[in-house]
Specification:
Blueprint (H helix, E strand, L loop, with lengths): L2 E6 L4 H12 L6 E8 L2 E8 L2 H8 L7 E7 L14 E2 L5 E9 L2 H10 L11 H10 L4 H9 L4 E9 L5 E7 L4 E4 L4 E4 L11 E4 L5 E5 L3 E4 L9 E4 L15 H7 L1 H9 L3 E2 L2 E2 L14 E6 L1 H18 L3 E5 H4 L10 E7 L5 H12 L3 E6 L5 H5 L2 E4 L12 H20 L5 H23 L4 H8 L6 E4 L2 H17 L4 E4 L16 E5 L6 H13 L3 E7 L11 E5 L7 H19 L18
Parallel strand pairs: 17-18, 17-19, 19-20, 20-21, 22-23, 22-24, 24-25, 25-26
Antiparallel strand pairs: 1-4, 1-10, 2-3, 2-4, 5-6, 6-7, 7-8, 8-12, 9-10, 9-11, 11-14, 12-13, 15-16
Helix pairs in contact: 4-5, 7-12, 7-13, 8-12, 8-15, 12-13, 13-17, 14-17, 15-17
C-alpha cells in the first residue's frame, strides 16, 4: 500500500528517513516526501516519482533530528507533488503520514470545509492533519486521540507537531506499524526493514494502540488512552538479508534463497523424525468437520495446493476460498470448521476481514504468516510462522513456497492425529519433507538454459498454462508470476476444461505451457498437448526429471526435481519463477516494483 517511517534521536533525520524510505519503496513508489522538525518549525519536501527524485529535490542537508517520511502508492488522488505525503495542517503546526484508507473522509472533508478549512490535496489523508489542528489546545496526545476517534477505516499514522520537537506519535489500526527501539533513538515504520540497520529490538503494536515516541522512551497506550504493556521481540535475521547481495534484483535473490528459506521453515518443525509444529497444542483436529482456507493472490494458490494435500492425507473436506469472496458470501461456518488464513505480510485487508467473519460465526482460525506480531497473527487462535525472512520484491517467491511447505507439514501432523496414515508412512513423508530444500535446489540446477529460453518466448502476448490436479495449482501461481512482473496477459486453466470453451482461443503460434508432472494423469495431459499442437500452438512442457516421452510433442522442456507426488507442487514452481523473471528482464520491466502493485495490500 504505502510505506511510512518516523525517527527521533541524535542522527540527522533527513538521512535516516531517506535510507528508510528506500527500504520501504517496495510498498509504494509513485511519490514520496519527508517532514523534519527544527527550531519550532516543520520543513516538508515532497515529490512525485521514486525516492531518487525526492532526494534530488531536497538537495543539501536539512537540519533536525526528528521527522517522518512516506513513500506512496496512490489510492485517493493522482500520484503528483500535490497529493504526496506528508500532509500539513493549515497552520503548519502538524505533519502527518498515513498508510491505509480513511473510509469516512468525504463526510469529514465536507464538515471541515463548511468550517472554513481549505484543502490542498485530493487525498483522504489530509483530513487527519486538519482534524489535529481543530482539536489541538496545547495537548498533543489529546489532539491525537480526539482525531483518531473521528476516523473510520484502516490506517497507520505518523504524526509530528512543531510545538513538540522531541516527540512523535504513531497510531495503528488495521495497517502494519511497528516501533524500533534503539539507544538514544527510536523509530516507527511499516516494516522492520526500514530500520533494521539501526536496531533489531521491536515493539509490535495492536490495532487501536497509540505510541508516544521520544529519543529516550516509547510509551504505548490502548484505545482508551491508558498505558499498556506492549509485546516486544528481537529480529533474528541480519541486515544483509534485506540487501540484494550482488544480484540484479531482489526477486532473483529471493528465488535463489528458497532452499535456505525452506530449511528455516521445515527443520525446526521436525523433532525425532516427526512433524511437530509449535503453536498447535490447543487445536483438537478430531473435532474439525471441515477446513476452509482463505487467502488472496499467491497465498490463495498455496491454499489450492493445501486443499489437495489435506484432503488426500486427512480425508477432511477442504476448500480454498478467495478471501475477498468469502467475506461477502455469508459462509456456512460453525464451531466445527477450521479456517486457515494465509498471508505473507499478515496485514492483507480481505484476509483479515474473512477471519473476522469466520470468528463471528464461531470458527477456530489458524494462520500461516511470515511476519511475527502482524494483524493476522494477532487475530488467530493458532499461528504457524513461515520464518522465510524479509521478502522485498513485490512478486512473492519464497513467501509462497514456505507457505506451501507449512501446509504440507500441517497436513502430515493432522493426518497422524486423525489416525489416517501409518507410522511408517509418517516417517516416509517426514523424511521427504526434510529433503525438499535440496529438491528445490535441484530444480534450479536442472534448468541452466531458462534465461536463454526466455529470449525465445518473451514476445508471446497471451500464453496459456494448463495442468491437472497439483499441476493445475502450480499453473495458477506460474501464470500470476508472469502477469505480475512482465505485464504479459497469461491465463491458467485446468486442462480438462480445454474442450469446454478455452480451446477456441488456441491458434497458430500461441504459447501453451503444459504442466505434466502428475504421473497418474500424464496420458491425459498428453492428449491435451496433442490437441493444442494440432492447432498450431507451441508447447513448453514442465515435466519430471528423466521424462523423455514428452520430447516427441514439446517444443521445449523445463525439468523439475522428482519427489513424492504429494509434494511436487513445491519443486515445480521454482523454474517457472525463473522463467517469469527472465521474460520480464528481457522485456525491460521493473521487476522488483511492477506497476500498480504493492507488497502489502492493506485496503480493498
Amino acid at each position: 500500500m504505502c510505506g511510512i517511517i518516523g525517527y527521533t534521536g541524535k542522527k540527522n533525520a533527513r538521512k535516516v528517513l531517506i535510507d528508510g524510505l528506500r527500504k520501504l519503496e517496495y510498498r509504494g513508489y509513485d511519490s514520496a516526501g519527508v517532514s523534519i522538525l527544527h527550531d519550532g518549525a516543520i520543513t516538508t519536501v515532497k515529490s512525485s516519482g521514486r525516492i531518487d527524485a525526492l532526494e534530488e529535490k531536497i538537495g543539501g542537508e536539512v537540519p533536525g533530528v526528528t521527522g517522518v517520511g512516506h513513500t506512496r502508492w496512490a489510492t485517493h488522488g493522482a500520484p503528483n507533488d500535490r497529493n504526496a505525503h506528508p500532509h500539513i495542517s493549515g497552520d503548519g503546526r502538524f505533519a502527518i503520514v498515513h498508510n491505509g484508507i480513511i473510509e469516512n473522509y468525504e463526510s469529514l472533508r465536507a464538515e471541515l470545509s463548511a468550517g472554513g478549512v481549505c484543502f490542498k490535496s485530493d487525498t483522504d489523508s489530509e483530513v487527519v492533519a486538519c482534524l489535529l489542528e481543530q482539536y489541538y489546545d496545547g495537548d498533543f496526545k489529546s489532539a491525537v486521540y480526539k482525531t483518531v476517534g473521528r476516523l473510520e477505516g484502516s490506517f497507520a499514522l505518523g504524526i509530528v507537531c512543531a510545538d513538540c520537537p522531541d516527540r512523535l506519535f504513531a497510531v495503528k489500526n488495521m495497517s502494519p506499524l511497528i516501533v524500533g527501539v534503539g539507544e538514544g533513538e527510536n523509530y516507527f515504520a511499516s516494516d522492520v526493514t526500514a530500520f533494521i540497520a539501526h536496531t533489531r529490538d521491536i515493539i509490535s503494536l495492536r490495532d487501536g494502540d497509540v505510541a508516544e515516541i521520544t529519543s529516550g522512551s516509547v510509551t504505548v497506550y490502548g484505545p482508551d488512552g491508558e498505558e499498556v504493556e506492549p509485546a516486544r521481540s528481537v529480529v533474528t535475521w541480519d541486515v544483509e538479508a534485506a540487501e540484494k547481495g550482488g544480484f540484479d534484483h531482489f526477486m532473483l535473490k529471493e528465488i535463489m534463497e528458497q532452499p535456505r528459506a525452506l530449511e528455516a521453515t521445515i527443520k525446526p518443525r521436525v523433532k525425532n523424525g516427526k512433524i511437530a509444529p509449535e503453536g498447535l497444542d490447543e487445536l483438537d483436529i478430531s473435532k474439525v468437520s471441515r477446513i476452509v482456507i482463505v487467502a488472496c493472490g499467491s497465498a490463495y494458490h498455496a491454499g489450492v495446493v493445501g486443499k489437495y494435500v489435506i484432503e488426500r492425507l486427512c480425508r477432511i473436506p477442504t476448500t480454498a476460498e478467495l478471501a475477498s469472496e468469502f467475506r461477502y458470501s455469508d459462509p456456512i461456518i460453525d464451531e466445527n470448521v477450521l479456517v486457515i488464513a494465509i498471508s505473507q505480510s499478515g496485514e492483507t485487508a480481505d484476509t483479515l476481514a474473512a477471519m473476522r467473519e469466520a470468528k463471528s460465526k464461531g470458527a477456530r482460525v489458524m494462520s500461516i504468516v511470515n511476519v511475527v506480531g502482524s494483524s493476522v497473527a494477532n487475530l488467530s487462535d493458532n499461528v504457524l510462522y513461515t520464518w522465510a525472512g524479509p521478502e522485498i520484491a513485490v512478486a512473492t517467491t519464497k513467501g509462497y513456497t514456505t507457505q506451501v511447505a507449512m501446509l504440507y507439514m500441517f497436513a502430515v501432523w493432522a493426518a497422524v492425529r486423525l489416525g489416517k496414515i501409518t507410522e511408517a508412512r509418517e516417517r516416509e513423508l517426514t523424511q521427504t519433507i526434510m529433503t525438499l530444500p535440496e529438491r528445490v535446489q535441484r530444480s534450479i540446477d536442472l534448468n541452466p538454459k531458462i534465461e536463454e529460453m526466455s529470449k525465445k518466448y518473451h514476445t508471446y502476448k497471451t500464453p496459456f498454462f494448463i495442468g491437472r490436479n497439483f499441476d493445475y495449482a502450480s499453473c495458477l501461481e506460474a501464470s500470476l508470476k508472469l502477469k505480475e512482473i512482465s505485464y504479459i496477459h497469461s491465463e491458467a486453466y485446468a486442462a480438462g476444461e480445454l474442450k469446454h470453451g478455452t480451446i477456441a482461443l488456441i491458434s497458430p503460434d500461441e504459447l501453451v505451457i503444459a504442466y505434466c508432472c502428475h504421473e497418474a494423469l500424464y496420458d491425459k495431459m498428453m492428449s491435451n498437448v496433442k490437441e493444442v499442437k494440432a492447432r498450431g500452438a507451441r508447447v513448453l512442457a514442465v515435466v519430471k526429471e528423466g521424462c523423455e516421452r514428452i520430447m516427441s510433442e514439446a517444443d521445449d522442456v523445463i525439468y523439475v526435481a522428482e519427489t513424492d507426488p504429494l509434494f511436487m507442487a513445491l519443486t515445480q514452481i521454482v523454474p517457472m519463477q525463473l522463467f517469469a523473471y527472465y521474460v520480464a528482464k528481457e522485456n525491460g520491466c521493473d521487476i522488483d516494483k511492477p506497476k500498480n502493485l504493492a507488497k502489502s495490500v492493506t485496503v480493498e
